[in-house]
Amino acid sequence: MQAGAHKPSIVPGSAGPAGTLGVMGGGQLGRMFVHAAQRMGYRTAVLDPDPESPAGLISHHHVQTDYLDPKGLGTMRQLCGAITTEFENIPAPAMQALAEHRPVAPAAQALAIAQDRRLEKAHFQRCGVACAPYAVIDSEQDLEAASAALLPGILKTARLGYDGKGQRRVRDRAELATAWADLGRTSCVLEQQLALEAECSVLVGRGWDGAMVHFPLQYNLHRDGILVRTEVIAGRLPPELEARAVAAARAVAQGLDYVGVLCVEFFVVRCAQGRPALLVNEIAPRPHNSGHYTIDACDQSQFDLQVRTLAGLPLCQPRQHSPAIMLNLMGDLWFDGQGGCGAACTPDWPAVLALPGAHLHLYGKLKAVRARKMGHLTLTGADEARVRATATQAAALLGITPD
Ligand code: ATP
Ligand code: MG
Fold first, then answer.
1. Which atom of ligand 1 is nearest to the CA of 165?
2. Closest Cα to atom 12, ligand 1: which residue?
3. Is the peptide bond before 12 cis (omega within 30 degrees of 0)?
């Protein structure tokens, strides 16, 4: 049980650990957490072994050790009044070790569930939230016993998958056996491949006292297992679907006795009765790529909410003030954009920034690599027509495939 335990009261502007927030992991999510915390007057500490990590580069303190290094964890405990994470594969024992001395949110137990698709799906079932039909594949026997109804399906490693990595699409038993061998016969889940009408996500924030707030339903477009675009525009998805998704996300957070920001990803599928069915895909125990638009389009961002939950500050229901479209800026744009220059060259940011309502976020990664998330661009506008027109222009300028 986490809520209520060791509730911190970390007040912006205080000296030493009383005014310092820590984050495990130094990627772009950590960087945007640091931005939010520093804007509010906190000092920050980041633990990440990479000397060039996007969050480490801008934090007051950067502890450059492995996540399980006792010295590094000791330094974080000395520096910080409370500690969160930006990377779901931080070893749960590292969070456990920190939690013995400092408030930590989310708790190691919630991370451990989010890190393993088998535990995650069992949790959804406990909360009464439907997910895609699936089977756990831990052994040769499980492989043989898997129901034919799950094929065609997607075999996913139970642990350490992200951006579609660690997944194989399989049509029949022969392909299933080959795929499992290919994934190293590690623990997996086999999910039925669904005909998706849409994908969407909800971000909830839950405080130490169990209070919850949420952001609007986010409509997400993926390509090759990677999020490419998020739209949050009133009326884009039916309000009753939004109400169901928010209720499901809150149930999942409550069931974990979660503290912090949690993203719940959903599939929308057509069911026999005609009403769209909502199935939960997975959770991210942290802010999420699909919530980046909140920085520019809401009265508080998902990172502001992460700061508030961690520090034990009051939570207020966020309000979206502009319709928004977020485009992910993948490393490919440095090679293929604007007619394709072949070698790495910088996209034409001045042209993009000449568009009203364009908000550019680059993560400070020094090297563009294909399929690497280098930044994102959020377009806001007074109404749907204007935000769509600007997004179309921005995508054309950058060489992003229109949808
Ligand atoms: P993330 O980067 O979100 O952590 P991931 O690697 O954990 O991604 P998933 O979210 O499981 O991967 O899947 C990535 C994408 O693949 C989904 O957003 C969806 O587009 C597609 N996908 C996954 N599972 C299914 C399914 N059972 N049926 C149809 N499409 C699916
Ligand atoms: Mg996903």
1. 6
2. 164
3. no
